[in-house]
Design a protein that fits this description.
Helices cover 77% and strands 0% of the residues. With 272 residues, the chain is mostly helical. Helix 2 packs parallel to helix 8 (165-179), helix 5 (67-79) runs parallel beside helix 7 and helix 6 (94-122) packs antiparallel against helix 9 (186-203). The chain is globular and about 65 Å long. The protein starts with a helix and ends in a 6-residue tail after the last helix.
């Protein structure tokens, strides 16, 4: 084998390895960016959360929201004048938004049933969601904006460019789930991450993902503070209630996925 042939084989092997791990570094970087940009305001949250809870939650909200300008700066460094690839904001029809809202609302009972089933079967303490510490404003507004720009904006576009659409969808959903810091919640957050990423790929817009994320967080927060939250906090939780919640959600999702329902909603203009 000549020196030139050896160089060609070496280059081919390097390219094969690069393709195998394409997007992995960018995916792991999403977790780093999510925590790095919020450090300045996060320090304010740590200092003031006990003595001034309201101020602490406001600092927490700012720490979450600071991810948006931070990741757009990263996008500017990566793409230059094409940094807007990290912020796809194409207009979508009302049908897309209505269908998204229905799907997310239908998925909430499935999430609740899963969490209740794990608690009933294993009785293991669930790790607290770090996002919950930033208060209602952070949960309902800050997290949907920041996490969608980070994962379904920059992350999806960057990993898609490096390793393809399927890898981008899988990696961003996985990193999104890992960010929430709980193995119990991981299946639900992974599933919703896949759904929101698919919506962005189908529509070319973050708006459906932001709306879906907003509805999911807002609904769960409202249920936690309402009567249903007290029912689910009962020990032990009834298997009948768990089954009813899960069944209702899955049936609703099946109906929403049917061609007839999607055709009727599409009449509003442009459902996926």
């Amino acid at each position: 084998m000549t020196e030139g042939e050896g160089a060609v084989l070496q280059a081919a092997e390097a390219e094969r390895v690069n393709q195998r791990f394409a997007g992995v570094g960018a995916a792991l970087g999403l977790l780093i960016w999510a925590n790095l940009f919020g450090i300045p305001f996060g320090l304010g949250w740590v200092i003031s959360r006990k003595s001034h809870p309201g101020l602490g939650q406001f600092f927490g909200f700012l720490s979450v929201l600071s991810v948006v300008p931070g990741i757009l700066w990263v996008a500017k460094s990566a793409w230059g004048d094409q940094w807007r690839k990290a912020l796809p904001l194409a207009r979508v029809g009302p049908g897309v938004l209505v269908w998204t809202a229905f799907c997310v609302l239908a998925f909430v009972p499935v999430q609740l049933a899963w969490l209740a089933a794990v608690d009933r079967a294993l009785g293991l303490p669930d790790l607290p969601d770090p996002i919950s510490a930033v208060g209602a404003l952070g949960v309902v507004l800050g997290a949907p904006l920041a996490e969608e720009v980070l994962f379904r904006g920059y992350g999806l576009a960057r990993i898609r460019e490096l390793g393809g659409e399927g890898r981008a969808l899988l990696f961003t959903a996985l990193m999104f789930a890992l960010l929430h810091g709980s193995w119990v919640k991981l299946p639900g957050t992974f599933a919703i991450g896949l759904f929101l990423g698919w919506l962005v790929l189908r529509t070319g817009s973050l708006w459906p993902a932001i709306l879906g994320h907003f509805i999911n967080n807002g609904t769960v927060l409202a249920l936690r503070r309402g009567n249903l939250g007290s029912v689910l906090d009962a020990t032990p939780i009834s298997w009948a209630l768990i089954g009813a919640l899960g069944t209702a959600g899955l049936v609703s999702l099946a109906l929403l996925g049917s061609s007839n329902v999607r055709r009727r909603i599409s009449e509003l203009n442009g459902a996926p």
